[in-house]
Input
Amino acid sequence: MHDPRALVDMGADAVRRLARRGYTLDLEGLEDLLSRRNKSIHRADELRAESKRVAQEVQSAARQGADTGELKQRARDIKDEIRDVEAEQEQLAGRLNELMLGIPNLPLDTAPDGDSEDFAVEVRRHGDPPTFAFPPKDHVDLGEALGILDFGRATKLSGPRFSVARGAGARLERGLAAYFLDLHTRRHGYVEHSVPFLVTPATMTGTGQLPKFEEDLFKTGTNNRDLYLIPTAEVPLANLHAEEILDAGDLPLAYTAYTPCFRSEAGSYGKDTRGLIRLHQFAKVEMVRFCAPEESQRELETMVGHAEACLAGLGLPYRVVTLAAGDMGFSAQLTYDIEVYLPGQGRYREISSCSDCGTFQARRARIRSRDKDGKRGLVATLNGSGLPIGRTVAAILENNQRADGSVVMPPALVPYLGFHTIAADGTPQV
RNA sequence: GGAGGGCUCGCCUAGUGGCCGAUGGCGCCGGUCUUGAAAACCGGUAAGGGGAAACUCUUCGUGGGUUCGAAUCCCACGCCCUCCGCCA
Output
């Protein structure tokens, strides 16, 4: 969310930047609504001040034994008027809030033009796509042949877009999670958290999923409580400090959590229906950082580095791209995607998304800081995947497959797995 | 699910209808003193809205209500604690 005043002051520049992501800002409408709300606030303030004065007069009149009947009547009249003005004020404030909650973050000018992934600009590449002396299989064929992935039974249990991992496959998932968490906590300075997977509407609003994207979420309504399943650990992690004032000296804060993620994938019918790429439930290690707003762009570079370290450590070829202004998430002002090479598809696919949200989420969730001089301000929030387990499993299987159908594990992972190869029959080779 | 107790400005705490946006202590910040530090003493120290500013309004868990006037009275809800039941 933006400060409505700041948006109005930015004027045409705000309109231009929002237009880059396909949002048409009605600047005059906003200005008008803001000024009407402010006038209403001012009027209500005046009336309340008057009402206080009259109450004082009643008291002093009563002390002197004078008749208070007339004064009391006047106070009652003022109260009625206050009621009316406050109702108007509430209505205007509600409309303004609703409008503000629906305006996406302002893309930085460093984000390229465009409205889809086709306009992403490559920043750098790491590693080379492997070459095979045989036609490489995709992770579904590999995983099912090895008996470590079972999509058929997942569908039996829950319908499409779910997965079951078995034996060495399940162990691979668990090992990856431990590997990523160790990397972030021991080498990158993140504090590991274990967080709720069900959160309130207010929490979902803090990070920007609500009110606009409810259809992307799974919702529960048990015992008259509306709770949503988290689509990413970014939601509980970034909201940890909602309504708080952090000590500026403690920044930056770096948090990580390993959680399942639940996404309805509404509107993606027929897209990536095969395999581990797009599921209703997947597991992910997430990174979240809180920092001073002026540090956020540098912090984003740092965080991308942490995500890259995950891939580099596993020996997976990847590239980093800057997302186009119109392709970024609602809360982001700049996003880098990391794409891993998938031999089964013969191309790079998104495996991590690292976003600088500036103060956009902090204003929604009211996450502030106070420096030594007592000066208060909003913090900046950043989030990045580091990394999703399913897509990483797919990348390892496809990149490390051998002609006989066996798969070699990345050396860095061996201590976490207890085996170095998954044999063609699915047996882990110690 | 049942019974009781609680929720005040970072923490603890005073406050049972008006001069209370709210007492005191701790903590924190600044100053005096000191070679420096500690101690002592003095001063400051909640958040938010509106306003260029002066200033003003709101907030004592949340929402309603009574009243000219509510931290204080009434109602509902939420959260926390203790005990009972159930449960991983």
In short: Residues 37-39, 41-42, 44-46, 48-49, 51-52, 54-59, 62, 68, 71-76, 78-79, 93, 245, 372-374, 376 of chain A lie near RNA strand B (CB under 10 Å from a C1'). Chain A is about 40% helix and 20% strand. The mean pLDDT of chain A is 94. Residues 27-63 of chain A form the longest helix (37 residues).
